[in-house]
Amino acid sequence: MLDWVGKIAFSDSSSPLESQGQENKFGFRRLAPKVMAHSHWHGHIEINYLFNCSADYLINGKKISVPEGRMLLFWASFPHQMIETQGDGELVNVYVPLQSFLTWKLPDDFVSKLLHGEVIVSNSLYHCDEQLTRIWESDIAENDYKLTVQVINEIRGRIRRMALEDYSTFDLANRAIKEGSRPIVRGLFHIQTMLRYIADNYDQKITIENVSKSTGLHKNYAMKLFNRVMRVSIKQYINQLRLQHAQALLIDTENPVLNIALEAGFGSVSRFYDIFQREFKMSPLEFRRSVI
Fold first, then answer.
1. Residue 212 lies in a domain
2. Domain encompassing residue 101
3. Looking at the DSSP assignment, which residues form a beta bridge with residue 167?
4. In sequence order, what are the residues at sequence separation of 6 or more whose Cβ sits closer than 8 angstroms to the Cβ of residue 72?
5. Which strand ranges, in their side-by-side order, compose the sheet holding 167-168?
6. Which residues pair with 46 in a beta bridge?
7. Do 64 and 162 share a domain, yes or no?
8. What is the CATH number of the domain that holds 239?
9. How many helices (H) and strands (E) does the chain have?
10. What pLDDT, in 10s, does the model give residues 234-277?
């Protein structure tokens, strides 16, 4: 049941597409910062903590210098590479699946900046942040579902605090528009529009036609584009968001399964049971009992 959460290992010497198939997993790693041989990219929202060190990055074709003791956030679907490091500190990477990130109801402007290629850097780092990442690392190693859920909630809270406080950006999204740069992924703007529409409406009755209309694209083209870029169908992606919502409600509330099915957007309890059982190899009630 915990196989969707793990320590994701990215090898700097292998293909930049190595992480395909892991993009629905949370990930964590701690390491000494080092220069990367090449750029890589993957579908996560990525957090980098620079503890007692600083680094220069090449992100989406632009050099970015990040001072010591900062936290930065970016959508890792844009090619990124650490090209220089200073100091003997530690780098902590946290990987958040995009579908999870988009359900966290963060400020629209903050989310929009990330989806348009911006790199966001906190203007300060709290003294407790390093200890907090060590707690996360220890809790993940316990392989306990409730602890893992707690870690994810704390990551969400830390990003929410970042979104509400002062932070710096590098004008990357506006730069791309002004210079007429082609997006790294063809059709990325339409993907962003669909992701945002789904994130805002997945708990209601929505159809593929609704999603495609949000972009002005023909339904068939929208489906093919979404599947090519996200590597899951629109229907599968919506169900992933609904399942994550339902899991949270099963853990955090005592609501009946019928109410949870409807609140998460499934429309009927039988459909909810079928999809939940197929995905997690247990019923919603078995899942609830296993984490209480």
1. yes
2. 27-174
3. 122
4. 47, 48, 50, 66, 119, 120, 121, 122
5. 27-31, 90-96, 45-51, 70-75, 120-122, 167-168
6. 74, 95
7. yes
8. 1.10.10.60
9. 12, 9
10. 998 899 889 888 888 888 789 999 999 999 999 999 999 999 99
- Structurally, the chain folds into a number of domains equal to 2
CB-CB contact of 170 with 114 (8 Å): no
242 and 168 both lie in a single domain: no
124 and 95 within one domain: yes
- CATH number for 103: 2.60.120.10
**pLDDT tens figures, 208-218:** 999 999 999 99
Task: Say whether 240 sits in a helix, a strand or coil.
Answer: helix
pTM here? 0.71
In a domain, 162, yes or no: yes
Distance CA 292, CA 290 (A): 6
Under a CB-based contact definition with an 8 Å cutoff, are residues 173 and 117 in contact?
yes
Residue 22 — very low, low, confident or very high, per pLDDT cuts 50/70/90?
A: low
Q: Can you read off the two tokens belonging to residue 134?
A: 């060590």
Phi, psi angle pair for 248, to nearest 5°: -60, -40
Question: Which among 60, 73, 77, 66 is positioned nearest to 179, based on CA atoms?
Answer: 60
The answer on pLDDT for 145 being more than 90 is no
Query: Is 131 domain-assigned?
Result: yes
Least confident of 25-34, 74-83, 133-142: 74-83
